[in-house]
Amino acid sequence: MDMKSVSSLKVDGRRLWATLMEMAEIGATAGGGSDRQALTDEDRQGRDLFRRHAEGAGCTVTIDEMGNMMALRAGRSPALSPVVVGSHLDTQPKGGRFDGVLGVLAGLEIVRTLNDAGISTERPLLVVNWTNEEGARFPPVMLSSGVWAGVFSRDWAYARQDAEGRCFASELARSGYMGDVPCRRQDWRCHLELHIEQGPVLDSERRQIGVVTAAQGIRCFDVTITGKASHAGTTPMHRRKDAFVAAAKVVVELEAIARAYGPNAVLTVGRIAVEPASRNVIPGLATFSIDLRHPEEHTLNQLENEIRRAVADACARDLLGSRIDVLSSLSPVAFDPTCLDVIRLATDRLGYSRLDVVSGAGHDSCHVAGHVPTAMVFIPCQDGLSHNEKESIEPEEAEAGCNVLLQAVLVLAAGEEFGSA
């Protein structure tokens, strides 16, 4: 195939969509979404399906000790570092059908398209399914890519527990996807990730492709407030040490703080629990999560100080105890300029409209970017809705994103040194 034909090569959009819908049948929810939380039986079934398809396309699939799946398509020069395309297959409890999944199956479709066209790339191509990106079952988010990047230790990750007290390591072993390949940084030429935007910008601006220049910083906290459990009917109001009342004050104050730092600051309390959780017992313990995001590091520091002040103030009146644990902290990330230029050029050659955007969500690429040249491609999702069963994209949008990714891979998988593409 000549270079002109290669530059006009496109994926099979119908096949890509059919594979997306096949995956969506695993863990399908009544509301039209997906529930394949990390290391559940549904996640295992999704992994099995991806493995069958990848091996059917001639890839060699290896599994590392965090369960990350790596499907390798050989290149003409196996000693050269591979071009990596990756995302995740796990979902939120009532998530959508495309978040993460599109990025993995787009990599599969690129492999299939290259096979159909009889094209051998100089560099190997690696398609990765990162384990537990969502962090819905085993917090924090992006756990396994964090181990790969050295942000978390493997043993710390293995000890993470779900709400029922089951630890990551035992569930990974149960799934059959605990590999023996070390989970650590590797010599990759670059890492590319296709993803739905999960926000409204591309949809409202009617742009087909988002060139993701950066991702905002994320800090995740677990807050514990300790009071004293006592009888609901016999303890006078002025003698109570109600942990939940203090927690409620904090949550209300946090919402006001985030609005004051708007429009770029966002803060969410997604989980809250009290003990002993009885109707006629004053809560002696309250715990809740905080997800804090902003594109600037110094503002994140200011917001964290505000959070700590709010917790201390809420606990002061009744002399309650408190503890704030930093579960994870991800600095704002700038993606690689060369990879971004390749993506822009591919988009323009294909005739798609584009817009430079900053990701409000966290992605595995954010961890990888600290060690490997990395970039992301967004496509619009309807009304920007994600982490919801009603998450929706059109088949032609998925096809467009995958075509851009394919053309970027063809450029970056050439044998030249990085920066000469």
What does this structure look like?
With 421 residues, this protein is α+β, with helices and mostly antiparallel strands. Helices cover 35% and strands 21% of the residues. Strands 1, 2, 3, 4, 5, 6, 14, 15 and 16 form a nine-stranded mixed sheet that branches. Strands 7, 9, 10, 12 and 13 form a five-stranded antiparallel sheet that branches. It has a two-stranded antiparallel sheet with strand order 8-11. The mean pLDDT is 96.
What's the arrangement of secondary structure elements?
Blueprint: H1 3-7, H2 13-24, H3 41-56, E1 60-63, E2 69-73, E3 83-87, H4 101-117, E4 125-129, H5 143-148, H6 154-158, H7 168-175, E5 190-196, H8 201-205, E6 209-215, E7 217-226, E8 230-231, H9 243-260, E9 266-268, E10 272-275, E11 281-282, E12 285-294, H10 297-316, E13 321-330, E14 333-334, H11 337-350, E15 354-359, H12 364-368, E16 374-379, H13 395-412
Parallel strand pairs: 3-4, 3-5, 5-16, 6-15
Antiparallel strand pairs: 1-2, 2-4, 6-14, 6-16, 7-12, 7-13, 8-11, 9-12, 10-12
Query: How many angstroms separate the termini?
Result: 20 Å
Spatial shape? elongated
Unreliable stretches covering 5 or more consecutive residues: none
Structural class: alpha+beta
Number of helices: 13
Number of strands: 16
- Share in β-strands: 15-25%
What's the quaternary structure here? single chain
Radius of gyration over all CA atoms, rounded: 23 Å
Task: Calculate the mean pLDDT score and round it.
Answer: 96
Main sheet makeup: 9 strands, mixed
How are helices and strands ordered from N to C? HHHEEEHEHHHEHEEEHEEEEHEEHEHEH
Helix content: 25-40%
